[in-house]
Design brief:
Length: 245
Amino acid sequence: MKHKLLPLIVALAVLGGCKKDNREPPKSTLDGMVVITGTKTPVGVQSNGTQLELWQDGYALKQKIPIYIDQTGLFSAKLFDGRYKLVRLGGAPWQNNTDTMTIDLKGHAVVEVPVVPFFTVGGESITYSSADTSITATFSVSRMDASKTADRVSLHLGLTQITDANNQIPLPAANIDKAPAGNYLTVPTTLKIQLNPDRYPGTGNAELRRQLGLIFTKKYTFARVAVRTTGVTQRLYSQVKEIKL
């Protein structure tokens, strides 16, 4: 009897597995943008470093759906139709907000997610000088949460549009990632970096020289500036700019 039942059990398991595997994938799309509260201005963040969460109503076993935000503040997800709750997570460069947003998805939906950043950067000027092969960034830092202080201001250069603290040319941090000056809220910040590969000798700088050589060959690089709030890992960035050399 035991041997006769075994093939039946295996067959049922296979059929069950096939049924699960044949389930239609989600076809509806949720598109959105994280913006500064009261504006249409998108936030600049580290690509895939900051998340939102979705929870779908109507299911006994609820599971969170992580939604990653790209460097321009945009996000997109393929989902099943239904009602979802969107949650803004802590650890981002903006105030925690425990309120949930309700989204009714049927085919396609577009949402704006408002946030209050601790700080913003603006008025940035990022220029290349052929005279000394350098890039200089000047920008203003504004505080939106009076209880917070900033502990770093930074300039990030990259080979692609995905440029941030984790995706950048490995330049020495001393010139491009600094503690802000005492008057950083009233006087623009200026950061300058030399790009000539010959300025970085030694075997430890081989990859840096290679990447600097690439941007001179291509005659452009991507750049953005950022501010980091004390006690917060993620930075608030400007939008990425292409800088011609």
